[in-house]
Amino acid sequence: MYDCADIERLAQRYVDGKLNDEEKMLFEKHLEYCLPCDKKIEFELKLKEIIRIKAKEKFNPVDLEAKLMDFVRKLN
Ligand SMILES: [Zn+2]
What is residue 56's predicted lDDT score, i.e. its pLDDT? Predict the structure, then answer.
């Protein structure tokens, strides 16, 4: 069984999907009965999702092109 310290230690690898099946199962078992850890992981996952979306926005070539066009327009 995992305790809260294990969850803390493995949280990053869990949200990155890097745990093996057994680790993942034990991890999720802990979350089922430990609300603070469950909340923490839920937050980590949301944060990861936001970062993923933001990263996409940042490197979106269409968006970049629009920004560039806007910049060029201001120069003229
Ligand atoms: Zn816990």
Answer: 78
How many Å lie between the centroid of ligand 1 and the Cα of residue 15? 16
CA distance 43 to 38: 9
- pLDDT value at 2 more than 90: yes
How much distance in Å is there from the Cα of 38 to the middle of ligand 1?
7
2 CA to centre of ligand 1 in angstroms: 8
Residues with CB under 5 A from ligand 1 (ion): 4, 34, 37
Please give the residue range of the domain that contains residue 17.
Answer: 4-75
The total number of structural domains that make up the chain: 1
pTM, entire model:
0.69
Residue 20 alpha carbon to ligand 1 centre in Å: 19
